[in-house]
Amino acid sequence: MMFLYKAFLIALLLVIAPAVLGSLLTDFKRKGDGSLTALYVKGWLVMMAVFQLFAIPLIFTRADFTTLVHAWTVVIVLLSVILLVRNRKEYYKIWKQYRYGRRETVWPYIFAIELIIVLTMAMVLLQHVDDDDAFYVGTAVTTLQTDSMYEYDAYTGDVYGAFPARYVLSPFPVFVALIAKLTMLHPTIIAHTVLPVFLIPLAFMVYGLIGRELFGENKKAVGFFLLALLALNLWGNFSVYTSSSFLLFRIWQGKAVLASILLPLVIYSAGCLLNEKGRGQDWLMALALALSSCMVSSMGIFLMPLSLGAYALVYLVTRRKAYVIGRVLSCCTPCIIYGLIYIFAL
Amino acid sequence: MSEMVRQAYNMFQGDSTYLVLFYIALLYAFIADRKLRELLVYPSLTVMVIAFMPVTAKIIAEYIIGAEVYWRVFWLLPIIIVIAYAATHMIMSRKKASSRSITFLVLLLLIALSGKFILTGENFEMPENYFKIPNEAIFIAEMIKEDKGTDIESAAPKLAVPYELACTIRQYDASIPLLFGRRPHDSRSEGSVEVYETINSANPDIEKIAEIARRNRCGYIVLAVSQQPLSSPEDSGYIEVGRTGKYILYKDGTLF
């Protein structure tokens, strides 16, 4: 019975919540924007961005971890309820489409989805030992057991003299601890066994969104695109430094989420944002992407502006429109702020 | 290209030809679809210029991410996205379903030959538990929890362990303080590096361990069953608490 209850909590937090929260960044009137895939991907961005907004001030004011959990949960629940009520007609349409809509049998697409499921199951059933978990998973366990955030060294349990500069601005392990607290599971089980179930498919959903940007509504092409990406990831262990290695070896670590999910998502986000018809939701999505990147890894604080900046430079040259610089600078504001804190205050 | 960038690039690409496939795919994408140049080709080229140009590379390495992890800049290159795009475009340009399938299989073979398969016994193993950490870490942690009385809890709560347990035991139970973790040089306990080196050797120096451990309120040590200490732990006042398949847990009998 307890197992079912925990499974329900996991589904609520990691499936339903993102699917609802994604509507904050969605323009349902725009074609392709209201797909479940897009909603789910954007929903994760909302969860991580909201977490980052609360976590940093609470960490620096040395608040309890429980305070962060309560604050984040209240906001997420309120936001979810408001969005569900506001967009109830859209969700009803989506439900009707999936329940009663005509389905095309497009073999590459279906084959790709089946293989993604098999790959995810393999990653859940198998184990890869990574010594970096001593810090990242150790931090999640330390956070939950001491009800504090970055007060104790994850390696030894000693009290930190000062905040660990490289890690304190990117509290992804604290997010793992939050999921553990809300689902009543041990953080190490969340990291090693639960998160891969959601994050590996999330990476492929991002690829799917990119595939739609590249090939439009051609499901066959998107199917082949996903199959190619499956193959490229499965044979991508030519060094331990590739995004494929990070995706399949240690997706529960923040830098793996950055390399395999958030940086590729820039392609999708930049395409929307830098288009002349880019709208408020596109700007919000890029902002959420920047916040999420900062949250998952200190590399994100610096790499995300580099990535978005490269797109801005290209669009500035090809379209000769100055607005792109302004849009990208605005979205990268969190990165600039955290970067300045990192350089001057830590 | 500076030496630092070359090293980082070589580390990143390993022995494969994936990056060669990427450059070919980039050229293909440039020719195949003008509309996608802005989305795929030009940003990739911009990142490559930033990453390889000595001036920008130096700024990024020295002031932003650090030279030792410069290879992470290459995460900005959408390598597998571009290769997958080119492969898909090639497949979809075939008119017949049979030629599409053949093209798909040929490209799959090319990808397999260019890369390195990830699902091997070298990279993965069957887990021993839901935590996916060695059972030994759990057994040792549970033994300590069962053994700890108030005296040793307040007087000498720390534990000194071999490397494998230093990386895993606090993933199970963070209430167990360690004399040193994965990186002994970062530990605040004096003498951690010396204890780390000897406790991970084939012949640990128990007297040295005991002397440093007692200075640092470290009441428990773990040795591997396969190790042959220079002297018996019992001669230094240690009492065996229990053992697992691979390890023996001792507590310092002089502390209570």
UniProtKB/TrEMBL annotation, chain A:
Coiled coil: none annotated. Keywords: Membrane, Transmembrane, Transmembrane helix. It comes from the Bacteria. The chain crosses the membrane at residues 6-26, 38-59, 65-85, 106-126, 189-210, 222-244, 256-274, 286-316, 322-345. The keyword Transmembrane helix applies. The keyword Transmembrane applies. This is Uncharacterized protein. It comes from Anaerobium acetethylicum.
Automatic annotation (TrEMBL), chain B:
The chain crosses the membrane at residues 16-32, 39-57, 69-88, 100-119. Keywords: Membrane, Transmembrane, Transmembrane helix. This is Uncharacterized protein.
